[in-house]
Amino acid sequence: MAKSTTDSDSATATPPEETGSIEEQAQQQTGSRKVRLRIDQDNLHTCYANAFRTNATAEEVIVDFGLNQVVSAPKTDGPADEPSGEIVFQLSNRVILNYFSAKRLVLTLGQLIRRYEGQFGELQLNVSERAKGN
Question: How many CB atoms lie under 10 A from the CB of residue 101?
């Protein structure tokens, strides 16, 4: 796969939460005015996830990604409070981050969500609220 190289040359440091630029984040981390960022995509794997779970230790944040799959069970004459199906959370990927990288990820994702909602409107996390809008 292709490798990309980027040069960054800036006299002022801008916090990553304001720019989200990988080059500027690298500049802040290295304290250098000019950095070359080389992205190696040779081992890049892509997956889709509609669910995640988190865990943490004193040194690391662990995020598991996967798919929530609804499995419907046939209706039985059992008790009314018995589940009518189940959700299977099929894990596919685990990402382990130190807390510094986790914080940068949170800030960057927050910026992306704010930008998206500014353009397309607020994302409703509650499924019943989304259904009312349709």
Answer: 13
| Element housing 102 (H / E) | helix 99-120
Residue 31, Ramachandran bin (φ over 0: left; ψ between -120 and 50: alpha; else beta): left
CA distance 52 to 75: 29
Residue 16: other Cβ atoms inside 10 A? 20
What confidence tens digit (pLDDT) does each residue in 79-96 have? 777 777 889 999 999 999
Q: How far apart are CA 134 and CA 121, in angstroms?
A: 14
Distance of CA 108 to the CA centre of its chain: 9
- Could you identify the residue written with the tokens 């509650």? 126
pLDDT at 10 over 70: no
What is d(CA 134, CA 107) in angstroms, rounded to the nearest whole number? 31
- Nearest Cα residue to 111 out of 3, 9, 14, 39: 14
* Beta-bridge partners for 70: 87
